[in-house]
Amino acid sequence: MTWTSLPDWWWPFLFILIGGWLATDVWRFLGVFVGGRIREDSEALVLVRCIATALVAAVIAQLILYPTGTLASSPVWLRVAAAAIGFTVYLATGKRILVGVAVAEVLLVIGLMVL
Predict the structure, then answer these.
(1) What element of type H or E holds 111?
(2) What torsion, rounded to 10 degrees, do the Cα atoms 85, 88, 90, 91 define?
(3) Nearest to 49 by CA among 61, 65, 38
(4) For 68-99, what is each residue's pLDDT tens digit?
(5) DSSP letters along 13-48, please?
(6) Which parts of the chain span the membrane according to its record (predicted)?
(7) Which of 22, 58, 60, 87 is deepest in the core (most CB within 10 A)?
């Protein structure tokens, strides 16, 4: 089955609506419904925070160690150094995310221009 196998123009939009919106919004609505009833220090919420943090860390590690596009042509040491220095600046500035990200990005851009 392809996008053009059905003659109706609207069926891809229906597919996107059902597959994209409905499938994810069910979990969002469930989170809002259940989230108001869970204590902030409950084991379930601690588990959810741990899993979310681990997923973000895994995505960042994948972007640093196995990048695509222009970043893939940069040396690994440059990517790791920019991330480490950005994280250090983030901690040194009182956990200001934008400052840490900006420093890491500037270092990476300068490193790419020099190399």
Answers:
(1) helix 97-114
(2) 180
(3) 38
(4) 998 999 999 999 999 999 999 999 999 999 99
(5) HHHHIIIIIIHHHHHHHHHHHHHTTS-TT-HHHHHH
(6) 12-34, 46-64, 76-92, 97-114
(7) 87
